Structures are given as C-alpha cells and as structure tokens.
C-alpha cells in the first residue's frame, strides 16, 4: 500500500458544534495524515456526520479550526482537492447515472468526457445505460454517489456510510476500489457502522463518543490492544469465578452474562476446564478467541472493561 506521509490531510483544533444549547461536537482534535485510510467510528448520534459536514464546509463550526492540506477548508484550492459523499448524494432521479455525472462535471468545469466514463467504470455503473436513477436500487445509488465524489480526481475522499444498501458483492467491489485509490496515494476518511468492513481496509482509526474524540490509533496499535481471551460457558458463574480467582490469581475475569465468563491472561485453558470439572461444575463450552474491532469499540463505548 502507499506509504503514509508526515503531513496532515486533515487537522482540527478544538472543533466544536452547537445547535442551540446542545453541544454535538466537543473540542475535537482530529488528525489524519496524507495517505491514510482513516476509519471514523461512533454510535448513531455520536457526532460523526456533523463532524464530516464541517470538514467539507457543509456546516460551519461554532468554535475551533479546520485545516485541509494545511489550508483553511474555505480555500477554493482545498475544495478542488476534496471529494465528498455525505448522507444523500444529491441525485437527479429523472436522469441516468451518466447524465448525473455529466451534470456535476459541467458544474465543476470538467469538459473531458473521459473523466465521466472513468468514474462510471470504477464504480461499476458504466453499463447502467438509459436506466433512470429513480429505478436504481439503494446500492446503485450509493455507487453513483461515490462516482460523483471521484470526479475531478480528488486527493482526499470523505465518505459517510458508503456501503449502506450494498449487497455482499457490492461491498467487496467498493472495498477493492478504496484499496486501489489508497494505492494511488489518496487519503480516505470513511465512517461506517459495519466495523468488520472497516477493519479490512483502515490503516488508522478515530473513535467518537458523545461528540468527543476519545481515541485515535493505528491498525498496529489496535492489534496490540485487541487481546486474546478465553471464553467459558458454565452452569454456575458465581462459584466458577471464585474458583478461577483462587486457582489462577494472575488472570482477569469478566462476567459476560448469566452463563458466560471471559478470561484475559490465561495460557492453560485445558487446565482451567479440568479444575472446574473436578469441582463438579458443568462446562458447556470453552475456547480461546481474539478480540476484533467491533468488540474493542463496544468496550470503549461502555467506558472500559470491568474486571471481577
């Protein structure tokens, strides 16, 4: 993949947005280096879309500063380096895909029809023909939105939930497209609630909770923090915990539900099972697992792991 650079494609300082008395984004210090695929993660209502709208100049900050490629977001040069898909792509439903892209190309001053054909090809819409957008599936509309964002060969792409409505094949194709654009040196900021997909492409992550950026980390840092754990399903959780603490004092145990225990720092799973069975505790299931991005995200949303 393309090497990440030391300069910032996006840098915000104390970025804040208020609607009346409600603060929806709180003093955000977001840093995205050139060449990164930055996965922006947060629950619905956490402030993701509002942040992205401010980065694109669609919404104005109440306080703070935004710099895109070290220039203010209002700079016309910056706007030409930016491709955006946020919420609705602003499609003309009575037109075809090609007519939609041609319309935007003209508004951007792009006269080369090859650019139009290229973005349609890249997004799998070259064969859409005379079919009007009003007859498109949601997935086709999403792909058209990405095609519009790619017009003008931007250096920075900001994509808000771009895989919404895509079937598995469409998701795979979009993933491949994003990786190809990354290979070309483009910087991509992408939000999605499908965390399994983000984990396949992102080089960096930012987690937003209640309008605050609570963590930024690289893929390698995430892998270090996603610990292995031993999962147990047992008949008697309370008694099992007491025995685990007594026999394996070096481990950390977390109660998942009425039957499940998650154990960190354990090496001898077979020995633990044997100990429980010898103490007449039924073990229904057990095994080692690796924490993934979704589990790590949920843990951060809950304010950290609670050990017993």
UniProtKB/TrEMBL annotation:
One Gene Ontology term of the molecular function aspect: ATP hydrolysis activity
Gene3D superfamilies: P-loop containing nucleotide triphosphate hydrolases
Domain ABC transporter: 10-235
The entry's keywords: ATP-binding, Nucleotide-binding, Transport
CDD domains listed in its UniProt record: ABC_BcrA_bacitracin_resist (cd03268)
Pfam families linked to this entry: ABC_tran
Keyword Secreted: no
PROSITE patterns: ABC_TRANSPORTER_2 (PS50893)
InterPro entries: AAA+_ATPase, ABC_transporter-like_ATP-bd, P-loop_NTPase
Domain of life, per lineage: Bacteria
Homology family: Belongs to the ABC transporter superfamily.
UniProt-recorded name of the protein: ATP-binding cassette domain-containing protein
Species of provenance: Sporofaciens musculi
